[in-house]
Design goal:
Blueprint lengths: L1 E9 L4 H15 L3 E9 L8 E2 L10 E6 L5 H5 L5 E6 L13 H16 L6 E4 L2 H10 L4 E3 L7 H4 L5 H6 L5 E6 L8 H15 L3 E6 L6 H13 L7 E5 L3 H10 L2 E4 L8 H8 L4 E4 L4 H5 L4 E3 L4 H13 L1 H14 L5 H12 L5
Parallel strand pairs: 1-2, 1-4, 2-3, 4-5, 5-6, 6-7, 8-9, 8-11, 9-10, 11-12, 12-13
Helix pairs in contact: 7-12
């Protein structure tokens, strides 16, 4: 059987593309012919990803479209002669971008419109979480399921040291970590407000670190910087690193005292699993798919009371017995993401189309 995957853009280090490559390798292990086709391909991936213009892109017995953004692939996918499987990674609702970027509002709106256009035109509608699956069901997709992500956290555990960075992060301050794009749904402004409560009422030995691109929504990042200035936060106590190499990412996890998520919209949230794999206690606002991903591990809270969260944060930094209990629970949760379990779930999810 030929199992093709379509992704609009193939980026190095992108979670969607990384997952597609792991799926392709799994399909090949199962004896299928499997390739990935993309509209745009990053330099260095040309030998790994095939262009969507290749005629073979349309020849799959089964084709899986990884959907997260609008693209010309959507309409073409709905007309393919073979079996069509949607894999929904989520589209951030437009309301989050409205105060900052009209173009992204349009992109998000178009993404959900294109998603709805596939109702009744796919053989199977899968999502990377049950939270996303329920969205598909609400849109009217009838045959739905979950196609779990294949995650590689061993790469972080095995990453080499970064001596200069390791030294900087070992200066006695509590490192409070976030990993991901600086985007409005992530509610970075609430991280800064949490920081203000923490430094004003709880503890002065802190450093908040944000690892990830901050150029995706420039107006939003400017608003975050303005809030930092308003609270008169010392520049060395809040870091925005931008994208970093994998070894540096591992170093940030390795030296983090707590991982914090205050996001209000996540379709899965891979960094939560990475933090658990690196034995970093997680403090998270319980919204969207976050409680599902954590599965009862870490510490979740709702409603979003940041004064309360600041107290929880201090407990996770300084209460060693509590830290050990939370880390133990997180290690147990990681069993759900072991390769053999995920592969069995993928096998079951794709069984209706014979993969």
């Amino acid at each position: 059987m030929t199992v093709n995957q379509w992704i609009p853009a193939a980026h190095a280090g992108d979670a969607t593309g990384d997952n597609a490559r792991r799926l392709r390798d799994l399909f090949r292990d199962w004896g299928h012919t499997a390739d990935i086709f993309a509209l745009t391909i990053d330099a260095g991936l040309e030998d790994d990803i095939r262009p969507w213009s290749d005629p073979d892109a349309n020849q799959g017995d089964v084709t899986i479209l990884h959907f997260a953004v609008p693209s010309p692939m959507t309409a073409a996918f709905g007309r393919l002669p073979g079996l069509r499987v949607l894999c929904y990674h989520n589209v951030t609702p437009a309301r989050f971008f409205a105060p900052f970027d009209a173009g992204l509002v349009g992109l998000a709106t178009a993404g959900r419109r294109e998603l709805r256009s596939l109702v009744g035109r796919v053989d199977l509608a899968l999502a990377v979480s049950d939270y996303n699956r329920r969205e598909l069901e609400a849109y009217g997709f009838e045959r739905t399921g979950v196609l779990p992500l294949i995650l590689d956290t061993d790469r972080l555990r095995a990453a080499p040291p970064v001596p200069d960075l390791d030294a900087l992060l070992s200066d006695g301050l509590a490192n409070i970590l976030f990993v991901g794009r600086i985007a409005p749904n992530k509610k970075i402004e609430d991280h800064i407000r949490l920081l203000e409560h923490y430094k004003r009422y709880v503890d002065s030995f802190y450093r908040f670190i944000f690892v990830g691109r901050y150029d995706a929504v420039p107006a939003y990042y400017s608003a975050i910087r303005a809030l930092i200035e308003r609270f008169e936060i010392l520049p060395d106590r809040v870091w925005f690193t931008g994208s970093v190499p994998e070894a540096e990412l591992a170093a940030y996890y390795r030296h983090a005292h707590v991982y914090v998520s205050l996001s209000e919209h996540e379709g899965f949230c891979v960094p939560l699993v990475e933090a658990m794999a690196m034995d970093v206690p997680v403090l998270a606002y319980g919204a969207a798919a976050v409680p599902e991903t954590l599965g009862g591990a870490g510490v979740t809270f709702a409603p979003k009371n940041l004064e309360y969260a600041a107290e929880l944060l201090a407990d996770l930094v300084y209460d060693e017995p509590l830290r050990e209990r939370i880390i133990g629970g997180q290690r147990a949760r990681l069993d759900a993401f072991q390769p053999d379990r995920i592969e069995a779930e993928i096998d079951a999810a794709l069984a209706p189309v014979g993969v």
